[in-house]
Amino acid sequence: MTAAASPLTLCLALLAALAAAPLAAAEKAGADQVAPAATTQAGEKDAPAAEDRAYAAYQRGLYLTAYREALPLAEQGDRAAQTLLGELHSRGLGVATDLKLAEKWYRAAAAQGDPAAQFALGALLTADKSAKPDRRREAAGYFEKAAAQGHAGAHYRLGLIEIEGELRPRDLRKALEHLTFAAERGHGEAQYSLGTLYGEGAGAAPDPVAAALWTGRAAQAGVADAQLDYGIMVFKGRGVAANEELGAEWIRRAAEKGNPVAQNRIARLYANGRGVAIDPVAAAKWHLIARAGGLSDIWLDGYVATLSQDDRKTAQAQAQAFQQAATFPEAGLQEQWTTGGPARP
To answer: What is the CATH number of the domain that holds 294?
Structure first.
């Protein structure tokens, strides 16, 4: 089984992806969520109840109701309501997507020191891949402000900025500090990036045990790339006791999340019976999915060609079912929002 791409390369690629992604991508880990905290300014006796109603509506997926409850509070200067409006406008929840309005409300809340708004504003300013350097520098400043108040997602972004070395001289030791802060507070992407640094010996001496520890925590947090890397670590015994069955299970989890490399690896494992029972149909299914995702494998092409026509048809049907479910995930996402929504900070 070939090793995955260099983890440090993946970390740098992640930075570029985050810069190009919409603001919603900033919510991949719980600590990155920009849902507003329920803070109330002194002298606003009626604000707590209205604020709670707005946030309760948001949690239940009643976004238009949340907007209506939050708007008068935001206009009166309530920073939590302003942050909530920024969130609704940035993601088009209950209202049309309007990044200019989102920026307006985030700026209003950030000016009052709301760390969630400061983080969200920084993410919004860097959401455009072609963002000018001055906007990226401004975003870094907001990440600094949010990080000073203990925002884990902001520390994570600052860690990536230190790794990238474009806005400021590259400093892997500072990156390690920022990522450690976020990782220790349960930020999955930070845990994965921290494991990357320890694995590559970047910012610290190479430490395969620490690399496996943090990559494993990121895998448990649901980071697909970390699940793949940790699966390979466990499979081969790198920094952790070797266990082919457990390693294969982590690789399978990454494959289920749509990682083409993991899909290719699990296909080979099923074909060869390494860590899993030999299953030609499963091997063919995952190979077809990985190939559709752009990862070809001549050996697996030949392996699939040796299967019976019935087995190939079954594998094709299973692959198509997986791809259809991955293409239309909206129902599952809507269920998540309408059954409680994101955790309240």
So the answer is: 1.25.40.10
Structural domain boundaries enclosing 269: 230-327
Residue 45 lies in a domain: no
Cα–Cα distance between 15 and 205 in angstroms, integer? 23
Q: Tell me, what DSSP letter sits at residue 113?
A: T
Helix (H) or strand (E) holding 156: helix 152-164
Q: Is the pLDDT of residue 221 over 90?
A: yes
Over residues 280-303, the pLDDT tens digits come to: 999 999 999 999 999 999 999 999
Sign of the CA dihedral running 286, 290, 291, 295: negative
pTM for the full predicted model: 0.78
d(CA 70, CA 55): 8
CA distances from 166 to 86, 117, 201, 203, 296 (A): 28, 24, 21, 17, 34
Is 276 a member of any domain?
Answer: yes
Number of domains in the chain: 1
Tell me what the mean pLDDT of segment 174-188 comes to: 97
- Determine the Cα–Cα distance for residues 167 and 132; give it in Å rounded to an integer: 11
Is 289 contained in some domain? yes
223 within domain boundaries: no
Which positions ≥6 away from 84 have C-beta within 8 Å? 35, 36, 54, 55, 58, 66, 70, 74
Q: Check residue 345 and report its DSSP letter.
A: -
Structure tokens at 25: 């991508």
